[in-house]
Design a protein that fits this description.
This protein is of the alpha/beta class. It has a single domain (7-181), classed as Rossmann fold, CATH 3.40.50.300. 39% of the residues lie in helices and 22% in strands. It has helices at 18-28, 58-66, 86-92, 106-112, 125-135, 140-152, 169-181; strands at residues 7-11, 35-37, 40-42, 54-55, 70-76, 79-84, 96-100, 117-122, 161-164. A hairpin with a 2-residue loop joins strand 5 and strand 6. Helix 1 packs across helix 7 and helix 5 packs antiparallel against helix 6. The protein is globular, with a radius of gyration of 16 Å.
C-alpha cells in the first residue's frame, strides 16, 4: 500500500524569500523526488508579485470557493488566496506537497491537515528591510507596517521547522531540499 505524502506548509513575512526558496528547491530536487509544488490561486494579475500563480478575478474565485474547489483559502493584503483540492489527491498518490501558505491561516490548515509540516522562513530584520526597499513595491509606510507585523507575528506548532534565509539562498535552499527529501 502506498503511503500518503506529507504536506509542507511554507510561510513567512513578505520579503523573507519564500518564492526564491521554492524556486531553488524546484531546480535542485532530484528528478525522481516525489515532490509536487502547488500553485496558489490568487485574485491578482498573473504577472504581479513574482510568484508563479493562477490568476483569478474575484468573481472566478468566489465561484470556485462556492463549489469546494479549494482545500484552503484566505484573504490577505486585499487579495484572495486559495490552494486547490488537487493537493489532496496528490498526497494520496504518495507525493509530498509543498504549498506557499499564510502564517495567519496555519491553525486552520493544521486542523484540516493534522500531519502538516509547517516551515517558517525567517530572516534578520535588517535583511528584510533591505529586501523590501530593494524590490520597490511598497511605500516607506507600507515597509514599516510589514516590518512591524513580521516582528510581532509569532508562529507556533509542535512540528514547526524554521529555515533562516538571511544569508545566501544556497544555504537555506539546501536545508529546504534536505527537509523535502528526508535527507
Amino acid at each position: 500500500m502506498r503511503s500518503t505524502g506529507r504536506l509542507f506548509y511554507v510561510m513567512g513575512p513578505s520579503g523573507a524569500g519564500k518564492d526564491s526558496l521554492l524556486a531553488h528547491a524546484r531546480s535542485h530536487l532530484p528528478a525522481n523526488a516525489p515532490v509536487a509544488f502547488a500553485h496558489r490561486y490568487i485574485t491578482r494579475a498573473g504577472n504581479a508579485g513574482g510568484e508563479n500563480h493562477v490568476a483569478l478575478s474575484h468573481a472566478e474565485f468566489a465561484v470556485r470557493a462556492a463549489h469546494g474547489c479549494f482545500c484552503m483559502a484566505w484573504d490577505s493584503h486585499g487579495h484572495r488566496y486559495g490552494i486547490g483540492i488537487e493537493v489532496e489527491s496528490w498526497r494520496q498518490s504518495g507525493l509530498n506537497v509543498v504549498v506557499n501558505g499564510s502564517r495567519e491561516w496555519l491553525p486552520t490548515a493544521a486542523e484540516r491537515f493534522p500531519d502538516i509540516i509547517p516551515v517558517a522562513v525567517v530572516v534578520d530584520s535588517a535583511v528584510l528591510r533591505a529586501r523590501l526597499e530593494h524590490r520597490g513595491r511598497e511605500s516607506s509606510a507600507e515597509i514599516e507596517e510589514r516590518l512591524s507585523r513580521a516582528a510581532a507575528f509569532r508562529v507556533a506548532h509542535p512540528a514547526l521547522v524554521s529555515i533562516d534565509n538571511s544569508g545566501p539562498l544556497e544555504h537555506a535552499g539546501a536545508a529546504f531540499v534536505r527537509l523535502l527529501t528526508g535527507a
